[in-house]
Design goal:
- With about 150 residues, the protein is α+β, with helices and mostly antiparallel strands.
- Helix content is about 35%, strand content about 20%.
- Strands 2-3-1-4 form a four-stranded antiparallel sheet.
- It binds adenosine-3',5'-cyclic-monophosphate.
- The site of adenosine-3',5'-cyclic-monophosphate has 7 residues, from loops.
- Adenosine-3',5'-cyclic-monophosphate (CMP) binds near residues 95 and 116.
- Belongs to the NDK family.
- It comes from Ranitomeya imitator.
- This is Nucleoside diphosphate kinase.
């Protein structure tokens, strides 16, 4: 199975210089980076991205937080790999950072649900939608791995 997911370092993660740490963890795991950018997220993109949360009481604060500084789309990264959606969710940890296990990004670096550093798509279907929202097709590079670094030939 080859899946893609969207990983985004949120504005608090960028402020805290966590971009490298996040990339490092996903590269070490063997995921392939196929797209990366830094951007100031627009209200238009954020309202689509968080469409399902529109009715939640924390929604306005969530949008303010996500628009408060640049996101590395790297804040958003798109990675390709086996079961990348499920494994990346495990690496990221629980949404509520106070419940996230040590060893996860949130469990190691965050204590609060509303400043949880990183986004990871929660299903394959959602991932495809989110990638389409944050990236143009031409911005995704499906490069070939060479014999020495190929982690995918199983
Ligand atoms: P994430 O799971 O990446 O996407 C939805 C975000 O909404 C979540 O991270 C949190 O940042 C935020 N969120 C979810 N639930 C709450 C909550 N109860 N209070 C504040 N923020 C929340």
């Amino acid at each position: 199975i080859c899946e893609r997911t969207l990983i985004a370092v949120k504005p608090d993660g960028v402020q805290r210089r966590m971009v490298g740490e996040v990339i490092k963890r996903f590269e070490q795991r063997g995921f392939k980076l196929v797209g990366i950018k830094m951007l100031q997220a627009s209200e238009a993109v954020l309202s689509k991205h968080y469409h399902d949360l529109q009715k939640k009481p924390f929604y306005p604060a969530l949008i303010r937080y996500m628009a408060s500084g640049p996101v590395v789309a790297m804040g958003s990264m798109v990675w390709e790999g086996h079961n990348v959606v499920r494994s990346s969710r495990l690496m990221v940890g629980e949404t509520d950072s106070s419940q996230a296990k040590p060893g996860t990004v949130r469990g190691d670096f965050s204590v609060h649900i509303s400043r949880n550093i990183i986004h990871a798509s929660d299903s394959v279907e959602v991932a495809e939608k989110e990638i389409g929202l944050w990236f143009h097709t031409a911005e995704l590079i499906t490069w070939e791995t060479n014999d020495h670094s190929d982690l995918y030939q199983v």
